Amino acid sequence: MAELRHSTAAAAARASNSPAKRDSDASSASSPFASTSAARGRDDDGKDAHRSSPLLPHHHHHKQLLPSPLRSLLALEDPRPPTASLSYRILLAVLALLLLAALFSAPSLWSSFNAPYLCQKEGITLHCPQTKEPLSLWENPRAATASWKPCAERRSDEPSDVPPENETSGYIFIHAEGGLNQQRIAICNAVAIAKIMEATLILPVLKQDQIWKDQTKFEDIFDVDHFINYLKDDVRIVRDIPDWFTEKDELFTSIKRTVKNIPKYASAQFYIDNVLPRIKEKTIMSIKPFVDRLGYDNVPMEINRLRCRVNYHALKFLPDIEEMADKLATKMRNRTSSGNPYMALHLRYEKGMVGLSFCDFAGTREEKVMMAAYRQKEWPRRFKNGSHLWPLALQKRKEGRCPLEPGEIAVILRALGYTRETQIYVASGQVYGGKNRMAPLRNMFPNLVTKEELASTAEMEHFRKHVTSLAALDFLVCLKSDVFVMTHGGNFAKLIMGARRYSGRHRLKSIKPDKGLMSKSLGDPYLAWASFAEDVVISHQARAGLPEPTFPGYDLWENPLTPCMCRA
After folding, report:
1. What is the mean pLDDT of the segment spanning 531-554?
2. Looking at residue 451, what is its pLDDT?
3. pTM over the 0.90 mark
4. Where is this region: Disordered (predicted)?
């Protein structure tokens, strides 16, 4: 028995000194979850408690199956001294909190990084990021630096320099062609050349053309008495061809009574050298065509000042047109609350404008075929066979010479900060493409109205007799707006911009989109919205309608500062 006990003790000693046993003991001692069990295992007179716990060996077996780094991370195995255990657990807690924060913020971060497109299109609906309305949205941020006032009117002590009736050079007669605003410019130029040649001006005739097809007379739109009386100290104006002249039809048909081939933007000296001798010879002469037949920087400053006087003071719409425009503007301001600001948008996207631009636009194959046929019919010499138009259209769009589509101007307005609550008055003809083409703009700005939607049928009935009367209403409502936005060039937009500058409304915004920048930005599908919006805001800070010093070849109607305004 003694030998048996001795051999058993020796075997136990050898087992306790084996490497596997030492590793097992060290693992049990270092594990915080096993420490209490190990302590209990040494109770009961040194008997091994592992034998009395059927669960612990199984638990210990699963711990051993985990990789060593994971056992350390889960605090099943701490490789550091016990003194560093608390700091280690605090670090784990901090990492866990950071992980939770990252999980909660992941959706917003993902949407931020995953938003390369400006807007998302769903069917005909365009979804763009929401923006907050800046405080300066309805004011020109640089208006405080502009101290200009209108000064085109005659001074009260300025004597009349109109020659007596029997000493004038003769009579001139012009056809004012095009739409209302092109006709307005022609009237201003007619007064100017009458002044240059010291001739008598016969009240211009508003000529019908192929687009407008309107038989409006001068007296149907403008206050004739005010026009003649206001300019009585500048130019002699008569209502009709003198009775003693019996060949009235010749003014419309005979080449003997017509001065042609006047170059565009001709100088004052050209009229003195080439037109005045014929007027003196024939007494009464007709001038046509008369679109843009007088320059700006090649005429005396006083003549340009006279053109401003005609445009901003002598040409007044009839009282009923003025009153209706006031009603429409008041309705716009009171649609949601009293004194609500409104934007006026001049949307140039009629079929004629789209065709004349020779630009390419998004649309179906059928639309493109129909537009090509329309262009070939209306402008055959420019269309030719159509093969050269595609590269030309791309080049024009890159240079910003194409009209903005309704969806494009909607994105620009949203980038500038205007919200879907913005009240917008739309001055436009029939938009090419109809409701589908207007859908992106209307979805982003649902408070979009026209004069026909603001006024009743009975209120508008009187003005439907003449297309130019409807155009006059649009002109005045846009002029009175808090913000005016143009989408393409043209006489309407130029005259509105110039009138707002001249009358002091340059303190409010008149936005002329940078279409060159927009064509590049809108063509980049990977441009982030924040970057796009920043580019739009910065590029339009200097395009908000402040008066600007003129330059060679400037447009008097859009920027009348140098000849017609002076320091306040």
Report:
1. 71
2. 94
3. no
4. 1-62
- Residue found by looking up tokens 């001065």 in the block: 259
- Find out whether 195 and 172 touch, Cβ atoms under 8 Å: no
Q: DSSP string of 464-506?
A: GG-HHHHHHHHHHHHHT-SEEEESS-SHHHHHHHHHHHHTTGG
Closest CA to 207 of 262, 273, 251: 251
* CA–CA gap between residue 492 and residue 110 (Å, rounded): 46
- List of residues 6+ apart from 346 with CB closer than 8 A: 427, 428, 474, 478, 484, 485, 486, 487, 492, 493, 496
b (16+ CB within 10 A) / e for 234-254: bbbbeeebeeeeeeeebbeee
d(CA 105, CA 107): 6
Contact 556, 308 (CB under 8 A): yes
Query: Which pLDDT score, from 0 to 100, does residue 99 have?
Result: 83
- Would you tell me how many other CB atoms lie within 10 Å of the CB of residue 487? 24
Only one residue has tokens 């003991």, namely 25
Residues in Cβ contact with 566 at an 8 Å cutoff, skipping those fewer than 6 apart: 148, 149, 151
The values of phi and psi at residue 443, to 5°, are -70, -35
Q: Which token pair is 228?
A: 């003649």
What are the structure tokens assigned to 430, written together? 């029939």
Contact 235, 194 (CB under 8 A): yes
C-alpha 425/C-alpha 345 separation (Å) is 6
Per domain, the residue ranges of the chain are 125-147+318-362+389-567, 171-314
